[in-house]
């Protein structure tokens, strides 16, 4: 497993002696790597769509994270 695979883990939880540490990866799984200065509208729209799908699929985890932060 490389760093990219590690970054794509959705949620991991480690239990320690006194605390539970939650780690949330908010980055969606994109079909292609896209540079920050990329300008092809079609590929950018695909990236936006994939991000929207990811957000909806993981809305329960995002709500849990929001509750932890409040």
TrEMBL record:
GO-annotated molecular function: calcium-independent phospholipase A2 activity; long-chain fatty acyl-CoA hydrolase activity
GO biological process, alphabetically ordered: positive regulation of ceramide biosynthetic process
The entry's keywords: Hydrolase
Domain of life: Eukaryota
Gene Ontology cellular component list: mitochondrion
Protein name according to UniProt: Putative 85 kDa calcium-independent phospholipase a2
Organism from which the protein derives: Operophtera brumata (Winter moth)
């Amino acid at each position: 497993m490389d760093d990219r695979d590690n970054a794509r883990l959705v949620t991991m939880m480690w239990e320690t002696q006194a605390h539970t540490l939650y780690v949330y990866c908010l980055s969606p799984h994109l079909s292609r790597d896209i540079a920050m200065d990329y300008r092809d509208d079609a590929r950018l729209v695909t990236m936006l769509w994939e991000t929207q799908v990811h957000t909806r699929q993981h809305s329960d985890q995002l709500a849990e994270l929001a509750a932890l932060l409040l």
